[in-house]
Structure formats: structure tokens, C-alpha cells
Amino acid sequence: MDLETLCGKMEETVRRAGAYVRTAVPQAIDEKSGHSDLVTEYDVQTQRMLMEELSALYPEAEFMGEEEHLQADVTVGDCFVIDPIDGTANFVAGYNRSAVSVALLRDGQPVLGMVYHPWAEEFFSAIKGKGAFLNGRKLTLSDRPLADSLVGFGSCPYYRDLAQRTTRILGAVLDVAPDIRRMGSAALDLCDIAAGRTGAFFELKLSPWDYAAAGLIAQEAGAKVFDLQGEPLGFSNPSPVVAGAPSAAEELRTLINKTK
Ligand code: 2AM
Ligand code: CA
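Above: inputs. Below: predicted complex with calcium ion.
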């Protein structure tokens, strides 16, 4: 199946998963590894629903996902990378800013990404080399410096030492950029870059399912997305993520590396 055909079929599945999340009222909430790392029955159910429908659409693909320790070797062949609810803490708090995120990796690189924010009814998608879209409208961002950029970030609440370092970086960012934003879903934060709402984003440690789909969407809109060395992101392990309009992203990366 070519990627355009698969993308068309996947959209229905991802929208259905988002509609399910939007109507859900979280009750049973478990802590995975600490008080900031939550999982609800809806995270698990949504991942199961996505896996069932995606494997019917594309039986040859493997799966990697945030819930139920779903790991796969992503470096060979085709693999779906799923975050059923990115922004689980927002979901639990009734903050109405969370997303369903699905990427397809081919031999370790994203070739297709979808992020759906069901409360805002915003559907972001990208196919490698074919551009990024928001509700069918092509996204093209223009370059800008950090001095003209709102800077989104994540605070790694589940890694306290990184949270402390993040606050030091923010001090340095606020000396240059007009303001910062902390919204609680890395996938949506990267999509905000694609949409030109923020000019740059960083989080010192994210998991592949947080950024696999949205990183491709940002890149296809014209953003730079890399790690602290300026290298392309990997998908086998957690990674720092820096993204943004080309100039802003490079300036932000330099600033982060100067702040210990
Ligand atoms: P989640 O809501 O799907 O868990 C917030 O800083 C961002 O970090 C969210 O995108 C959140 O995704 C992600 N996140 C939460 N816990 C994490 C963990 N233990 N490792 C990596 N990323 C995590
Ligand atoms: Ca996530």
C-alpha cells in the first residue's frame, strides 16, 4: 500500500481514537513511575483500539507504544509508534489539551505522522517529502530568530534534576525571547511550531512516541528538529528534543548547551 492510501485510511482510525478520548472521563488513574507519570484506563484502551485497527489496515507493520511496555526493534522494516494520549496529565486535570499521536517508521525513520487534538478539532498530518497539513491546509513556516519567537518547552516533571536544569535554561531564554509557553503535550507543542504559533521548543528528555509523528510534521512544515548535538533524533531511546524555525532552533540549541 502506498503511503497516501495508508494515510487516508489511518485518518479515520486516529479521528475515532480522538473522539473516544474526548468523551472519556478519567476515573482509574495509576502512577507509572512517580506522581507525575500517570496512566488512565483510557490510555490503555485507546492504544488497544489503535493497534487493532492499524494492524487490520497494515498487518505487516510492528508496533511500539507508550502503554503496556510495547517495544519493538524500530530500526528495520515498518513500525507504528503510538502515543494514545499525549498529555495524560492534562487529560486527568480536565485541561482539554491532549492528542492522539501515530507515526509510521520505515527502517528507523518517520515517513508518516498524524497528531489529532480532538478538543480543538485540529488534525495534523505529514508524509515524508510531501509537506505538513492542518485540517487539509498546507503548513509552511517562515524563518525567524529566537528574539521574535514564543518558546514552548516541557519541564520533564518525572526527572527532577532535568526540571531544575530546565528552569535555568528558561532564565537564559527569557533574556532573549519575548516569552515562554508550557502546555503539557510535547506532540502538540511540536505541531504548534509547524503551525507557526511558537517559534521554538525544547524538552531535555522525551520518549520516541512523544515526538515521532509531530517531529516529522514540524520538519515537513520547514522546521529544524534535532538533539543537543544538532543531530537527527533517534527512535530507539529517549532523547532531548530541540525544534523550531531554523534560526530560532539553532540559537536555542546553542543557548541550552551553554547553560549547565
Ligand atoms: P504523556 O502525557 O503522553 O505522558 C510533558 O512534559 C510531556 O512529556 C508530555 O508529552 C508527556 O507525555 C511526556 N512524558 C510524560 N512522562 C514521560 C516519561 N516518563 N518519559 C518521557 N516523556 C514523558
Ligand atoms: Ca506522550
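The chain has two domains: 3-139, 146-258.
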